[in-house]
Amino acid sequence: MENKLITLSAYVDNANLAMGEMNMSGTYHMEKEAFAQLSKICNWNDFLKRTLTLGDFIPCKDGKPLEKPEYYDNWDGEAVNPVDHTDYIQSLYDYQEAKSRVVFEGWEIVSNNKVICSIRNRRFSLTYNAKRKDFALKRTLQFLGFVPTFSDLAAATQDNPLKLKDGKPRT
Questions:
Q1: What's the pTM?
Q2: Are 165 and 104 a contacting pair, CB within 8 Å?
Q3: Structural domains of the chain, count
């Protein structure tokens, strides 16, 4: 299955379930593979129920967007000479940790102040209101609605699903 945010019904439709069979004693026997598929469906459903956060789209710490540290792209993850660079080293580690928690790929900050943060990818834009803790989804100039959960976002983008980072979510 492609690594995209899709609705639960689309996920189930793509699962090709082979559930099992009734045995001679009248009890239902579920095949191991079917049980594994059912577990994945339950995990996907739990994932879709989660409330979206800004950190699902861009690296954040304590709900606030992080700036990419200078020279981050050249950093190999190894320790840097700590003399007079303690804050810089911490910013590298903080950014790396926050980036590892991002669920979607391809989003960037368009504008950011203390209350409103606008982010976008190639097809959609989201405006996060920190006071209301909600996301407004737009495509070009068309308002698509408020999307509080992954499920709402999947439904609003089902004609053009958002791409998830490799390995996200783990179902």
A1: 0.80
A2: yes
A3: 1
